[in-house]
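Why run this: before we spend reagent on co-expression, it is cheaper to look at a predicted model of the complex and decide which construct boundaries make sense. The entries below are exactly what would go into the expression plan.
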Amino acid sequence: MVELRRQLLMDERAVERALARMAREIVERNHGIRGLSLIGIQRRGVQLAERLAAEIERAEGERPPVGTLDITLYRDDLTTVGPRPVLGETRLPAGGIDGRVLVIVDDVAYTGRTARAALDELADFGRPARIYLCVLVDRGGRELPIQPDIVGRVVEATPRERVDVLVPEIDGRLAVELSVPEES
Amino acid sequence: MTSSSAYLGKDLVGLQDLSADQIRAILDTAEPFKEISERAIKKVPVLRGKTIVNLFFEPSTRTRISFEFAEKRLSADTVNVQSTGSSVQKGETLVDTARNLEAMRIDMVVIRHSASGAARFLADRIASNVINAGDGRHEHPTQALLDMLTIRDKLGRLDGVRVCIVGDILHSRVARSNIWGLTRLGGEVAVCGPRTLLPTDVEELGVHVFSRIEEAIEWADVLNVLRLQLERMQAGFIPSLREYNRVFGITRERLERAPRDLLILHPGPMNRGVEIDSDVADGPHSVILDQVTNGVAVRMAVLYLLAGGVPERAEAAKRAGEGD
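The model came back. Tokens follow.
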């Protein structure tokens, strides 16, 4: 039997602190919130983008537009993954993306293939002035030359291990966990 | 992730073969596909490199165009084969036609045929995915799915919804697919039409039967008004079009007497002034054009779901580690 041993990497307070810092970093890099829009990747990137937008609003007094992106139809492994994944909503931020500074928000950076798909999909929607990639956890293991610009926490995880970001809207709590399969 | 109980398998032949979970999976998948048709660039790369043949042995305009839009918006390459002007007219059999196409390495076939069972027959004999776009009097599954999606959009549910199908039930594959699909998802279905145009064993399909349209209107939440094929009159099923309109036509006066607002569906093309009056077809409760819009989304969903891999490989992919 293979069992999963779960290990807490970040508790609620740690995630909140990381998000607060990431929000400051986004504003700093953009020299304010002018032209700024956030795009959450389905599913958990969406909740993280909402939280970042709330943090930015707290600091700057104005909330940047937030959109959602489902990259399923742009994945490069669809013919091999088996039954089709359920699609989530794609909704561009108010004001569109042309000429905007976009921040793609995802939960975990791993192979880089999700970010690749997101860039391809966004290119079909328009031409942003600039795109940043922002993730709560960078677990390494890149298969494409794509690196996040803003990172909450760097974690060394082996391919057998799994990093799960938990959000209250889906999972009932805010945390980051590492799952390690163990022979028992 | 789609659970394997909602996995569609290789083909879509009819709704009679599908479980409630499978039908729900198609309708749920169609929702996000609607948005793609609203984009400035109405195209996603999900079926890039796939070849789809639309094999139409019966004339059809809107179903074929709807499938073609769906295929192109998913980036598939498409070829249309119609019975006139093809080797089909030279006496080639259905299987020979399909096998020749397969030898050119195609991935999917959308088939429309006048013989009931043609889609199943083909699906059992070729390796490509087969989608039934209407076979004889048997089924027209994507039409029923788009009808169901439209009803669910407007009323928020299908469970307990009362749908009356009006007209020529006997010859209608749309009616049959709707009856299977709606009853599977908990809807109540009735039919109403001239006795000569109802199947003799219609009650065995699990539907109510109304012989008077006024009773149907009093009972129903939704009317799905079928096209009256004009050749039915020549074949003696009904005395005249005027007579049909007088007895079964959906008119504003009849709807005004209904105890509630009815949703009006029609699979098209309409005979205005025969089965449906213009002020109903263009009226506030008509969702006929929503049906057309939803048709593209439903067909995109079916193509997307059928072109997927197999459950075993999905399990393997899941074990290999969750996404990034």
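The interface with chain A takes residues 1-2, 4, 6-7, 28-29, 31-33, 35-36, 39-41, 43-46, 74, 304-305, 307-317, 321-324 of chain B (CB under 8 Å). The two ends of chain B are 15 Å apart (CA to CA). Bring this page to Monday's planning discussion.
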